Amino acid sequence: MGYWPVTGRGVFVLIGRAAEFAELRAALARAAAGGAGAVLVSGDAGVGKSHLVSALTRAAREDGFAVLVGQCAELGESMPYLPLADALWTAAQSGAPESDAVRAALDARPVLGRLLPDSGADPGSVAELGQQQLFGAALGLLGELGQERPVLLVLEDLHWADRSTRHLLTFFCRVLQRERVCLVGTYRSDDLHRRHPLRPVVAELLRLPNVTGVPVAPFGPGETAEYLAELSRGAAPVTAEAVERVHRRSEGNPFYAAELYSAGLDVPGEPAELPSGLADLLLSRMERLTDAGQRVVRVAAVAGRRIDDELARRVSGLDEADVGEALREVVSHQLLVPSGTGYTFRHALLREAVYADLLPGERTRLHADFARLLADLPDGTRGSAAELAHHSLAAHDLPAAFAASVRAGREAGRLGAPAEAFEHYERALELWDAVPDPESASGVTRMRLSLTAARESARAGEPRRAVHRLRRLLDAADPADLRLGAEIREQLATYLGNIDEDEESQATAREAVAMLADDPQAPERAWALATYARSLLYRDPDGEMPEFAEKSVAEARAAGISGAEAALLVTLGLWRESREADSGVAEVFARARDLADAAGDSPQAAVRARYHHARTMFDRGDLAGAARAADAGVRFVLDKGLRWSTYGIIMRSLRYLIHYTAGDWAEANRLADEFAVQVVRPAEAQISAYALFVEVAQGTPRADERLRWIEPQWGEDLFLNYLARGLAAEHALWNGDPHAAIEHVGHVLCTAYGETDGAIRLAATGLWAHAEIASRARAAGDEAAVRAAAEAADELLRRAKTVFTVNTDGLPRAWLGLEGHAWLARAEAERRRVDGVHDAGLWRKAADLFTYGDAGGGFVYEVARSRWRLAEALAENGDRDAAAAEWRSAAATAARLGAEPLLAALRDLGTRARLGPAGGAPTPGSAGRGSAGPLGSLTGREREVLKLVADGLGNREIAARLFISPKTASVHVSNILAKLNVASRTQAAAVAHREGLG
């Protein structure tokens, strides 16, 4: 297939498929050792079977195998044994090392020679060959070739195999035992309908002990991204949006993805038309069906990706017997597959191609038929309103589409699907002016429907879209309707606060409060008071808090608006927490949670209370209690459909963070499986960034991939910028690039988050970077660089201490969580490292503070990181026994967590300071790659880079392969050369090959 990328050196790139390729290589190894076997490689058309097998044939040739490759063709039974003849002919003519042996073996077996096109035999006589004689000759030929070198025989496209070839395949699989032969066959699983002659053959063969099945699945999102990046080499970089769009439509099929990308369907505003070649390929599968079968497929295409069995029967217009037979035919050809009480298309693009091939009138009539049937379903049938809206709109019945869209929006809202609810309401609003008496048809005013749409978009994680709509509603609202004006402003202020537009948020909330000064019983006023009070937490120039919030609580209680009262209690709790060292504040949040639950009409206030209840326990070191509270909070979020609301996101993030902190990284990684890597909007990127905590600490390649997707988004959201850049800085440090780390830290500290308590951790990270720079400069005798690092470090430590002692209002900070105290101690210890001093006392203080008072608990990973530095300081000061104890403790934790970068650092320290355990006990890296030899001091990423250097790749190629910048690749190479004590890439490659890495 011509859509697989090739490097500049002419080498095909194998993307993904590591497990499948390993399975095939294992079969080669067994054959080379005298254990014959067969592997049947299956997968849909275009999924990459041939490319995978091509990689195998190249590897086999490199391993000294004789390689014979034959292909079947779509010629029916007219050419028996075609793939065997193709394999023998090609091998005999190729000039490969085995060519002479193949020709000699053929000369000794005339019965096989008659298969070849230059044999002079009558083509018809091939069918008359004695099967037993030919099978014996073929087996003897393979055995003879295998005596000189192991043999790989590949038979491609077995779904087109003739009967004789199927019998030969069965014979080989049953008879080959101790010959040095590996047989690999490929076939399209989507072509194996129930009556396909290969289907029973495969089922029979896979029961044999020496036959293995290797299914080739579609690409995952990350593999599609890598694939498109390879296809685009030399062109503009592939954007995250383009990858998401192509992957969604191709469903991970590489051939489909390449066609879509090459046709320009990766760009925004993608056209509806598929590339003609791809559409023709897809439609060719339908043309094999009877007229009735084609009719059923067209009906299913109009229904959508899925069609109910009863609807398919009724809309098709066929009688019961004919439609049943047609459905069996379609399913047997695997165009549709059974799913519950209906059917789905095997691939979404097949449905697109069939739908696009319909005539306009035919399409409209079928949509109208579906709409009539759906309209007759009982009210409340789940999903029927959404389907009715879709079909009515496509059938040009606008009044029916409008009414159904409103019903569908309400149904989606009740089911906790805010994104879908917003889409339905948006469609209804677009149709408002096109239908008669829309207010009567919907039972709601246009203004109220718009407000509901804005609320659902915010719940779906799109607060900016909600802000845009509410700003337009302000202009359209009747100025005399004060309650409506206050409600719009209150919601607008809420969502402005969610996107860090604090000044405008506060001004808008203040307007909402003032509008209803004479209407204290209005629910809109109570909520406006709650929103304004919340804004005062971040901007209170006139010192209105806490008196304003306390009066507002009383006013909300008098008006009976419990949800607003609960929201105000949370705000008061947060104000108290920022000014009082009061451990009882958790009870305030619990009371607010219970009040909001009792009100039943304010899930956002209830989620906010739940989050702060769990968060305050987390801040005080009660990790077990925080985990229980966070679990309950996430269940509430999911039950209420608030997964992508502001507090829904941070509640899910907190649950992950608790497990990360407690050292339960298996559970943290399980939770992170739900955090998408391919993110295209800030809400997705924000929760995705949390997964970097473990990924950076474990040094996994996914960290680079995740950062690549997040980077375009971090300018859209201040918190995302703070979180992702902070972790990107740590990632850069583990990979030997302190200058990149400082750049990330600087970008965050110049934002509002540079004044929050989160700046303490950032400062500590920046100080780590400056300590590394100062160490290198000191070694190089660059005193100016040492002084510059010290000056920058002084500023970072000053900022950390300021934030530690003063809150964002410039008032003395009464309380800070345990983690904040530990990070300040870390910052102070790193500041001493900038001066070249390893202060054991400061590092011990940091390690102790990170335990949160529990010697075996607390922030497990950071305790280990602090003990790493403590061991280094003790060793430098001559206390080797104490250093070894701290080193072993840190190493045990790092090994248990799989924290590879920390393990590499500990290995390096253990080697340099001779802290390794005696008596053959395992080294810190024994759970990972092992620390022996000249590669022991390399980090995991440096080993990856060195392997690519050994493969002959340049910095730009390495960067592309590992999803890093060329500059970072250059830094890695420089560090590798220094650690290996070599002067060139060639020498480094030689070391890699000698150590078995290349």
End-to-end separation: 29 Å
| Largest sheet report | 5 strands, parallel
> Looking across the biggest beta sheet, what order are the strands in?
2-3-4-1-5
Unreliable residue runs? 1-11, 123-128, 917-932
**What is the mean pLDDT?**
87
How much helix is in the residues? 55-70%
The radius of gyration is: 34 Å
Shape label: flat
Structural class: mainly alpha
**Strand proportion:** under 5%
Number of helices: 50
Strand tally, please? 8
Spell out the key features of this protein:
998 residues, mainly alpha, 5-stranded parallel beta sheet, 8 strands, 4% strand, disordered N terminus
Structure explained in plain terms:
There is one protein chain. The protein has 998 residues and is mainly alpha-helical. 65% of the residues lie in helices and 4% in strands. The chain contains 50 helices and eight strands. Strands 2-3-4-1-5 form a five-stranded parallel sheet, with helices on both faces. Helix 8 links the parallel strand 3 and strand 4. Helix 48 packs across helix 49. The chain is flat. The N terminus is likely disordered.
Describe the structure in brief:
The chain has 998 residues and is mainly alpha-helical.
List the helices and strands and how they pair.
Blueprint: H1 18-32, E1 37-43, H2 49-62, E2 66-71, H3 82-93, H4 99-107, H5 110-113, H6 123-126, H7 131-148, E3 151-156, H8 163-175, E4 181-188, H9 198-205, E5 211-215, H10 221-231, H11 240-250, H12 254-262, H13 276-286, H14 291-303, E6 306-308, H15 309-316, H16 320-332, E7 336-339, E8 342-345, H17 348-357, H18 360-375, H19 384-394, H20 398-414, H21 418-431, H22 438-442, H23 446-459, H24 463-476, H25 482-498, H26 502-515, H27 523-536, H28 547-559, H29 562-579, H30 585-599, H31 603-619, H32 623-639, H33 646-662, H34 665-672, H35 682-690, H36 692-698, H37 701-710, H38 718-734, H39 738-749, H40 758-780, H41 783-805, H42 818-834, H43 840-850, H44 860-876, H45 880-897, H46 900-913, H47 940-950, H48 955-962, H49 966-980, H50 985-994
Parallel strand pairs: 1-4, 1-5, 2-3, 3-4
Antiparallel strand pairs: 6-8, 7-8
Helix pairs in contact: 1-2, 3-4, 10-11, 10-12, 11-12, 13-17, 14-15, 14-16, 14-17, 18-19, 19-20, 20-21, 21-23, 23-24, 24-25, 25-26, 25-27, 26-27, 27-28, 27-29, 28-29, 29-30, 29-31, 30-31, 31-32, 31-33, 32-33, 33-34, 33-35, 35-37, 35-38, 36-38, 38-39, 38-40, 39-40, 40-41, 40-42, 41-42, 42-43, 43-44, ...
